[in-house]
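Re: your question about Dihydropteroate synthase

S., sorry for the slow reply, the queue was backed up all week. Below is exactly what I fed in.
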Amino acid sequence: MASDLPMPRPFPHEPPGLKHDMVLAQASTREALGRQIARAHRGASAPLIMGILNATPDSFSDGGVYVQEASAAQRAMTLAQEGAAIIDIGGESTRPDSSPVPLETERARISAILEASVKTGCAVSCDTYKPDIARYAVKAGAVMINDVGGTAIDPAMVAVAAETGAFLVIMHGLRETAEGDVTDALSIFFEKAINRARSAGVASERIILDPGIGFNKSDAQNIGCFDALPTLRQRFDVPLLVGISRKSMLGRLTGRDVQGRLPASLAAATIAARQGAAIIRVHDVAPHVDAMRVTHALSAVTSGRRG
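Result:
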């Protein structure tokens, strides 16, 4: 059901020439990203790294760190310099027990980091389940909608993706549970969501699936998500995104607090890559870029693709 909240206010008026230039740059970025994702999906390149940039006071790992415009802009530049292909910005925490925020609050939170992230030249993604926020972000230069509601919280999200041509990440688990076999649960959920998106006019090459590790799942189910990746990749033939960075499951496995989970995050990302993930969503970009390059190179050797 579409939001009945008012549309967010647009950015201040820009001269027509600048707006035209932004639209052209956005289209170029979107097409270049499409080629990169397709290569990673085919296994012809290392998985792309999506760097996390939250403008929230309560996110589980970096809540309150990048709420100021200057720190957010510096962080966006750092993510780009470290090799992020995508910067994923968010204005509402989705950690367990977090509180929803009004649309206008979310819009205000992402405004500065959205502008700063677009200026880096990286592809920009907006992490939200609200169609109005997604539309606002794409209008301002984002090329990807990371729908943590999986098109199920507000089905109007598929219309925004179709209208704008943005990539659409469909994530499982924000409001759903995985009953029974996790692979079956994910397959059923994604089949419905993909059909919903395609029926609205979202191109198949713009769809990405995220199993939602850490969202309404037990540790056994979270581990099962890794086992499900090859099945999902084969069944739907669309790129897969995995977000495991610093998550609580890794803390329970290692006994480390959130700031001490980089080695565990790298290990999990490596497994996700070997299982077919095309995009890895992370807090620590530089070490993950290196890990994915090495994983890809060694995978090529062991599978006979070297050279």
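The CA atoms of residues 129 and 149 lie 5 Å apart. The chain has one domain: 16-302.

Happy to talk it through on Thursday.
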